[in-house]
Amino acid sequence: xxxxxxxxxxxxxxxxxxxxxxxxxxxxxxxxxxxxxxxxxxxxxxxxxxxxxxxxxxxxxxxxxxxxxxxxxxxxxxxxxxxxxxxxxxxxxxxxxxxxxxx
Length: 103
Known about the structure:
The structure is a single chain. This protein is mostly beta strands and 103 residues long. It has one domain (13-22, 36-101): Roll (10 Kd Chaperonin, Protein Cpn10, Chain O), CATH 2.30.33.40. The protein is 0% helix and 39% strand. It contains no helices and eight strands. The strands form two sheets. The chain has a six-stranded antiparallel beta sheet, with no helix packed on it. β1 and β2 form a beta hairpin. It starts with a strand and ends with a strand.
């Protein structure tokens, strides 16, 4: 499934997914307001687009384990960050996702 916004279509290839990172916390537990430079980038986000799966040795494709809308946890250094229409997105391999968050 591809992400589409204002006429722009983004379809990752193969086993890749596009994730929109969640916003980082504005305050510490003690109530101190953090400037942007001091904030840690959260390793959580929402899947906005999914590729068609990993190519297997027999030529078929595996089904992706995540779907659009899933909230996920991923490794801190996963993926390549890029901007699309003021949105910061991450393009990463499905293997970089560590878990799906369920409500």
